[in-house]
Design the sequence.
């Protein structure tokens, strides 16, 4: 078989897998948005059946042969070509897949499924002890997985690498420390400044909220003919396939900003998904997202850099006032202040931009200790509360508001949390670079013209797929190695604008 | 491998295939109900990928080995056991699957996909010539399929057997002739009788229509926690998986009865699906529908025998009047007359109970001639119009209202149409038998209590799955071989009640 034939076979295999992944994504979306109550057990079986097929396809020995036939051929001579990138990334995926024994993969999938249900009940009942054995199982299996995958010095790195290729705990820790120092400094400065005024009281009509969301998501570039907006208990974004990026939201009549920023966040994910899928490489690594942090950078950029900015609200405040009569007297400046207030709290998903990263530090340090074996599962609640007091200045009154608040560990997603802060960092790097490339960006945004920004992101991030590893992708887009400095500048500027410090 | 081990392997294989079929069903439902406009090409690929996997599973040589290990063992000693039925039916499915070469299966799937699109355009443009080459391809491939499947005397039988196991054209023809004679007789009798009064004019509020549909579908037994009701351009019913039977409708503000009877019809399908899936044999033939005609018998029974009857409207007329103010003065008797009027028309899906079967005769005779090679594709429009005049007394003014009106042939479904009339016949047989088994059935229905009827159908039809071939299933349920007589009695009684003839 020639290298070209092997490459064609590789891509056909990858594209067929992508079509199965699309079916799996639809099963998952439907489960959260549409599924009748009696159908959940059946749905779990359906997801299991397709997952098993995908796992076998990912480990198919034919893949190994095709990859060997491609590697070292003329197709990999220029690493910048789509062919070379696809071969490199398919090799990465294949090597990871074959390292995980099928029994371990199945055990992890089952533990994640039962673990998630156990976590839901434990959080509801504030009963960490009921969840602890599941967490122990998931931790044990994840450590086994890290051993199977292999690592240099730190087992945690093997897990982190699954979400963020090339990333290491030793590189994450100092970056998170920088974000902590900045947050502590900002919190110290604003301590005695008057808090910005809240938005007018609700209720905010939910039909009007939906109208505004549809207007704003379309305004920033999400085509209604390539997406859906639906309601689910937990908002999320999912790509089903080409031309089909779906987001969900949840309406709170007392506070329209929850659904609003949530939907803008998910729109950022959806715009990225449509962007890399639409680059002509769907079903191959060149048409896939670069990493979890890069994905998060797109949602955070639109949510924070754009939708919490003054230019954005110059255009959107009249739209919002047309939907909600009580906003008639609210200025864009007042809007920006209200949605930018810094208030340390117990719940990560409700956190402001500045203190959000403190939540990530807390989780990163704890999961690192768990994976290392330095922290026993039984000691997690105490360790969480101690660290929460030290980092956030708050001790959770219950585990439900503490170590049981997040879903991630209940599905075995150890090593996932750092991608949130990396995403925040990348978002700030990209928005600064976009501002250099589009000198009149604030004026464009104030005029409701978000196309130049979306086009810049499309060209420099979306269309690139997995052509470059995450850090290299950000460096190529911005012209410099990514650091926390742009995010820190952004947070300081915001504190200055809102609190005058 | 012991027979029991082989049987367990067979069933595990069948159950995993059922989970993939469920995913395919969801892809299909979503395509008609939810899919963003830009996503149709991607969806076709996803359906293609899962179809290819299913086809390979259906022909898996391991199936042949397991079946051989089971057949003739103690598992098949008593043909009435679920094991024997499953083995017999899995053998039937396997033998059919392996007879179709993969190239032919792929060619048919592609021709069906392009044919359906070509038909949609041709119907819109009233352009039979544009559709003719597609029809020719589908006919050629279907005849090739019939050859591959094999038959005794009539190629058509090989295709018919895919929908209705054991059925033959030679057995269908006299039954359809009996229905034609009855219809001609009824039409002659009512010719000079005054037509029943129409229902009051619309508009019928579509939100109120939806309210009524949800009330009535729940009333007759469709649980909202095991089903969904959504809107689609073409109403349909689909089983996604256990506890998940979905129906769709389309609202016409001028005439609430279209959505109403359509939804009751689809509810009949859904009740059957939930019934056979819920019998503990999901994913194996014992948990599958017996045939297309048996499926249709369930929709027709609820649509015609139940929902066009006086006892039904004694209970439902006040519910309808609560939704639509203009029905305040309409009696149950007037309602039954209005929805039971006999009016020959050009369009099958709008036909009344009596003339519906005339449409089926028309199509059966034409598709039989096409498959035999006695009728050329180019001559179809002329043959259709001639036969329409002879059978219905009407000549279509356009092909869009004539030979282009149905979707079936555009997807290669030759041999499907007779199942509609068989379904009508089986529905009447079953309703008569249920009436014998439940002496106070009319009183129960008039009191809004449809549980005894549903329970009788569940016990005698739904829960049986594919335990018996279709005719044997109806015979076992009713205590006599199915004939057209009960349907003819039903139609005559209705004509008598409405027209006094």
Sequence:
């Amino acid at each position: 078989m020639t290298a070209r034939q092997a490459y064609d076979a590789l891509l056909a295999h990858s594209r067929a897998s992508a079509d199965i992944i699309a079916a799996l994504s639809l099963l998952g979306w439907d489960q959260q948005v549409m599924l009748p109550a009696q159908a959940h057990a059946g749905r779990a079986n359906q997801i299991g059946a397709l997952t098993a097929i995908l796992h076998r396809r990912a480990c198919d020995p034919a893949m190994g042969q095709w990859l060997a036939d491609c590697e070292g051929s003329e197709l990999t001579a220029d690493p910048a070509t789509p062919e070379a990138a696809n071969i490199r990334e398919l090799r990465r995926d294949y090597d990871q897949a074959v390292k995980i024994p099928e029994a371990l993969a199945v055990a992890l999938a089952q533990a994640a499924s039962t673990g998630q249900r156990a976590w839901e009940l434990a959080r509801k009942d504030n009963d960490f002890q009921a969840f602890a054995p599941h967490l122990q199982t998931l931790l044990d299996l994840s450590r086994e997985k890290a051993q199977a995958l292999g690592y240099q010095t730190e087992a945690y790195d093997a897990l982190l690498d699954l979400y963020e290729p090339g990333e290491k705990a030793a590189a994450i820790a100092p970056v998170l420390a920088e974000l902590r120092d900045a947050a502590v400094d900002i919190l110290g400065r604003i301590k005695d400044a008057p808090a910005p005024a809240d938005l007018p009281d609700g209720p905010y009509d939910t039909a009007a909220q939906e109208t505004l969301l549809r207007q704003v998501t379309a305004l920033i570039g999400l085509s209604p003919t390539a997406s859906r907006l639906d309601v689910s208990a937990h908002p999320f974004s999912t790509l089903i396939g080409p031309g089909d990026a779906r987001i969900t939201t949840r309406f709170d009549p007392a506070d329209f900003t929850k659904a609003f920023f949530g939907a803008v966040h998910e729109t950022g994910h959806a715009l990225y998904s449509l962007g890399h899928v639409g680059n002509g490489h769907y079903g191959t690594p060149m048409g896939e997202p670069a990493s979890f942090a890069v994905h998060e950078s797109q949602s955070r950029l639109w949510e924070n850099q754009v939708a919490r900015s003054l230019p954005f609200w110059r255009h959107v405040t009249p739209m919002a006032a047309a939907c909600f009569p009580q906003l008639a007297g609210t200025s864009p400046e007042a809007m920006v202040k209200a949605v930018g207030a810094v208030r340390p709290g117990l719940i990560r998903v409700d956190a402001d931009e500045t203190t959000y990263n403190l939540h990530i530090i807390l989780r990163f340090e704890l999961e690192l200790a768990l994976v290392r074996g330095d922290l026993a599962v039984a000691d997690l609640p105490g360790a969480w509360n101690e660290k929460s007091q030290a980092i956030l200045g708050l001790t959770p009154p219950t585990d439900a508001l503490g170590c049981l608040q997040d879903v991630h560990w209940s599905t075995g997603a150890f090593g996932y949390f750092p991608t949130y802060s990396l995403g925040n960092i990348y978002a700030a790097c990209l928005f600064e670079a976009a501002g250099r490339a589009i000198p009149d960006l604030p004026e464009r945004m104030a005029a409701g013209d978000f196309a130049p920004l979306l086009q810049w992101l499309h060209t420099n991030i979306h269309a690139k797929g997995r052509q470059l590893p995450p850090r290299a992708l950000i460096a190529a887009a911005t012209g410099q190695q990514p650091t926390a400095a742009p995010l820190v500048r952004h947070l300081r500027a915001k504190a200055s604008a809102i609190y005058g410090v």
